[in-house]
Amino acid sequence: MAIKNKKLNLKDKYQYLTRDMAWEPTYQKKEDIYPDEQFEGIKITDWSQWEDPFRLTMDAYWKYQAEKEKKLYAIFDAFAQNNGHQNITDARYVNALKLFLSGVSPLEYAAFQGYARVGRQFSGAGARVACQLQAIDELRHSQTQQHAMSHYNKHFNGLHDAAHQHDRIWFLSVPKSFFDDARSAGPFEFLTAISFSFEYVLTNLLFVPFMSGAAYNGDMATVTFGFSAQSDEARHMTLGLEVIKFILEQHEDNVPIIQRWIDKWFWRGFRLLSLVGMMMDYMLPNKVMSWAEAWEVYYEQNGGALFKDLERYGIRPPKYQDVANAAKNHVSHQAWGTFYQYSQATNFHTWMPEEEEMTWLSEKYPETFDKYYRARFEHWDKEQKEGRRFYNNTLPQLCQVCQIPVIFTEKDDPSVFSHRQIKHEGERYHFCSDGCCDIFKNEPEKYIQAWLPVHQIYQGNCGGADVATVVEKYYHINLGVDNMEYHGSPDHQRWLDIKGLKPLQSNSEKKTAA
Amino acid sequence: MTIEIKTTSVEPIRNTYSAIARRFGDKPATRYQEASFDIEAKTNFHYRPLWDPKRTLNDPSRTAMQMDDWYAVTDPRQFFYGAYVGNRAKMQEAAESNFGFCDKRNLLTRLPEETQHQLLRLLVPLRHVELGANMNNSKIAGDAIATTVAQMHMFAAADRLGIGQYLSRIALLLDGSTGKALDESKTFWMDDELWQPMRKLVEDMLVIDDWFELTLVQNVLLDGLMYPLIYDRMDAWLGEQGAEDVSLLTEFQRDWFKESLRWTNAMTKTVVGESEGNREQLQLWVTQWEPRAYEALKPIAQATTGIDALDEIRAELSVRLKKVGLESTGVQA
């Protein structure tokens, strides 16, 4: 060993404080200590090549994070004390929070579990430590989100049982199956799915739109959480990029495996983002930008630059990227149109856009909105105003992979539903797209296991035979209070009261009146 | 006289989330409650893990312990993330000040060469034990059912990494931040006879599959002997060698262990109390592993405090286990 008398630089010092605590085991076999590192076929020849994506010792972590938490909770307290919920743009906005708390917060928790696991699974201690720090960060996010929305839950309906609903409600199986898919994969696929595809490539299209939506709609609690989580997210993104580069540099045999995972997780992510698209275009009273604009900036431009950069490793842009790019002008309208029809079975309200919002949609989607969507929406709006609010009582066909109803249209023809089907071991399976169908074909034994909510209802596994029973008893949705049409709902009424459009009644009076 | 600011009061329509109300009633909930209960997915998992196809995700059968409701295990410290980092930030502030003090006054480098060597041989190698503890707790956090249980182990995983880093910094103080002392210390961990039973124990623990067995072995049995031996008895012994200043650099560990007893005792008590079946299985694990922990620490005790100190600690652990209905053998108490 060379005699050392030079002071360590920051990089080496951090390595001494992390990976150098590890050692080559001799009493147990390495493959017994790290049994999950091999089966995916990823070849790691030298873990010492791992570049720490950030250098944060625990003492510094505790210190910085505690400062952030202190500031954050001071805002939460002030927000509650001053009834900050009264300062949002409009109570329709709260429905974006319902979607977030039931659709996204449980994913933060699942991420905590996933990273805690991979934070143990890798034989490279540097990677383990980075994953563990993300695990505890994700726990932070899941918990601060409960606290950020706690006050809203006290004043609006539909936020009251998010985790229970995440396990059950039909459309929440879209985000849930996404994370179950990643968590049930091996450690390298988990990181490709979550650290790279989700955190690095798509976070500006998922986490950020909700936080920007909060900023634009006077939601101080949620936007403060967003700012507070920003530096955590920056660390997670850095890890995402390091992971992918490290795996690709380790062995050329890794390239096709990573490519297949990028294809898969891009497509799964894109489908998941349909929910965000409709939130941005339809659920925010004060809109940040259109979904199509967000997709152009954050995927087509930023993602384009990223995949250009990855070209030198032999990685090409994700398969079906062209389909996703073309769909940016359609998905949010198709998704909102679906949720509008099935609002009796969601945990949030839906409504038809007001005239000025329709105008905004026409401007933002000059080639599609007026041509394909406006007439239907105006018709529904008219029906609702005439007392015939439309609800669809036929349960939809779900895609076997992404679990979204088969509602999206063909790339070249927005008047034709995109529907694929194949037979596998005598059973027929249905898909929303070639993207999802390909994912199934690569791992049929995985996707035949999917817990498809519609199938489960029909098989009698959801507490009842009719929608009302399932919704109330199994989903814990207060029918007509948490959901259905916004106009005339208790939340709407309460908002009018808050805004002084009618005198504010005390609670006891309201109870008597009801 | 008091001043009174007039505010409009708005009556809430509910006091907390439904899941919390089902457990504690519809009344204002604590932040610990809203952050810790029933936020983990419980049912309707989509795919069986490729790494464990016999079970589902979040499967309760990843341990032999059976609980009607794992949320019965709660944290007496009421730590959720914010409370946890707030507490540790204060502890690290004290530690930082102690390290700064030692560094500024050269308290370690002015120790006799032989004492410095003893620190590298007898104290610093524990950083490797801490890394094992870090890995074990991270695994448990990933496998455990119920947030109240999982988060305590995630916090423990982070703590153990931090403690490993504090131990490493003792060596960096000794060698002037060159890394030389850490390299030397690691050779003791790898090759010195004194450390081999411990290294074997740590490696054996890394292949324990049952997460509750692992938390028992790591956080109750091994820590229950190791922390009092090292940071109490050996600390006193180092003082006798003229190295009492080292105490400043291990203060964090003493405070930490005292605090950790609160949750480990509460957890063990609840799980033992759940059923006779749990108690029996836990007893088997105690019988199997407690002597291993003792044996692993024996050479260290022999080289420092003497074996009597370890035997006393062993008796203390036995009393502690007895309080929750478990018995450790090998002690003539």
From TrEMBL, chain A:
InterPro entries: Ferritin-like_SF, Phenol_Hydrox, RNR-like, YHS_dom. One of its GO terms (molecular function) is monooxygenase activity. Keywords: Monooxygenase, Oxidoreductase. Residues 418-451 form the YHS domain. This is Aromatic/alkene/methane monooxygenase hydroxylase/oxygenase subunit alpha.
UniProtKB/TrEMBL annotation, chain B:
This is Aromatic/alkene monooxygenase hydroxylase subunit beta. The lineage of its organism: Bacteria, Pseudomonadati, Pseudomonadota, Gammaproteobacteria, Pseudomonadales. Keywords: Monooxygenase, Oxidoreductase. InterPro entries: MP_mOase_hydro, Phenol_Hydrox. GO terms for molecular function: monooxygenase activity. CDD domains: AAMH_B. Pfam families: Phenol_Hydrox.
